[in-house]
Design brief:
The protein is mainly alpha-helical. Helices cover 73% and strands 0% of the residues. The longest helix has 41 residues.
Length: 157
């Protein structure tokens, strides 16, 4: 096998990784678009974080293989799904949402260009921000659930 053949095989492998990561990302985005008002919000945030992390890993490898991101026209003005937008009653600490909104802005700028490393970094920022939000929302859900159980127990006594 020649060096050129090995390089082509590596690029094909990375393309498969990128396609897999892209499908995961699209599925996570659809989950937020089709979401009921609040059920499973922490889980959707966690899946978003995982999908963004997969994109980050795939695009880091794509960058290492010399590949470029295909720019997304109009991406700089894109908005996330409704339940992730500011002003929609999203739950969780405001400071974590500020981080998330900044990561979304960074992502929008990165995907409007062609630099695979910048895209990978932007996906990493989304993954980190969504993971922190998922933990915080899950903690809030746990407290709410425990308070509800305590109130019901007191009511039954």
């Amino acid at each position: 096998m020649s060096f050129g053949d090995a390089l082509e095989q590596e690029r094909e492998r990375v393309v498969r990784l990128v396609r897999h990561a892209s499908a995961s990302w699209a599925e996570a985005m659809r989950a937020h678009k089709l979401a009921p008002p609040d059920e499973g919000f922490a889980g959707r945030l966690l899946r978003l974080s995982e999908a963004a992390a997969a994109e980050e890993l795939a695009w880091r490898q794509a960058h290492a293989a010399g590949m470029q991101w295909r720019p997304v026209p109009g991406a700089a003005e894109a908005e996330p799904p409704y339940e992730l937008r500011p002003g929609t009653g999203r739950r969780g600490p405001e400071d974590l949402w500020v981080e998330f909104d900044e990561a979304v802005s960074h992502m929008n700028l990165a995907i409007s260009g062609s630099n695979a490393f910048e895209v990978a970094t932007a996906f990493g920022d989304i993954a980190a921000a969504a993971a922190r939000l998922a933990r915080a929302v899950s903690d809030e859900d746990d407290i709410t659930r425990e308070a509800r159980e305590l109130a019901r127990a007191r009511n039954a006594a």
